[in-house]
């Protein structure tokens, strides 16, 4: 692959990523609607999956270009960067796949980024407060046994948790 073609592919990926980020940033966010029949599973925004896919693709293209070239010593930094991008993309996609939040009638269930499933019953809530983090309101819930859940109040419907804690 020639140097010009590689630069063109990298620039196209960066432009696509910037376009997706700008379009997602100006999109109006509404929290998930609560269903009276039972809990619904709320996931991370699709932006995380898109960022993970772009990182994965960029890492793959860079790895393809750097590992197939005959100039091995000169491309060592590009090889390292391609592996880092590829691993960051895989980790972002795994985090998007693993994390969820279920606000039920008796408890809030959630799975962490690393895949551990946790549950905080409404009767075991020790503290529930809202804090501002970088201009975004977050709900922080702590249970009596030390579990902590912190989520964006505008993105996720936490009305049942706030009502049970209040």
From TrEMBL:
UniProt keywords, alphabetically: Membrane, Transmembrane, Transmembrane helix
Lineage, highest ranks first: Bacteria, Bacillati, Actinomycetota, Actinomycetes, Micrococcales
Transmembrane stretches, start-end: 6-26, 46-67, 79-96
Organism of origin: Microbacterium bandirmense
Name of this protein: PH domain-containing protein
UniProt keyword Membrane present: yes
């Amino acid at each position: 692959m020639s140097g010009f073609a590689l630069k063109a592919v990298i620039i196209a990926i960066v432009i696509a990523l910037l376009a997706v980020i700008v379009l997602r940033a100006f999109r109006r966010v509404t929290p998930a609607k609560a269903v009276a029949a039972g809990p619904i599973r709320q996931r991370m925004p699709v932006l995380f999956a898109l960022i993970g896919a772009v990182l994965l693709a960029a890492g793959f293209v860079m790895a393809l270009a750097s590992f197939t070239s005959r100039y091995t010593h000169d491309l060592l930094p590009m090889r390292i960067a391609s592996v880092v991008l590829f691993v960051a993309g895989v980790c972002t996609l795994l985090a998007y796949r693993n994390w969820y939040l279920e606000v039920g009638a008796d408890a809030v269930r959630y799975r962490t980024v690393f895949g551990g499933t946790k549950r905080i019953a409404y009767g075991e809530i020790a503290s529930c407060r809202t804090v501002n983090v970088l201009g975004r309101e977050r709900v922080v819930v702590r249970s009596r046994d030390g579990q902590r859940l912190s989520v964006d109040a505008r993105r996720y419907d936490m009305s049942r948790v706030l009502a049970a804690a209040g």
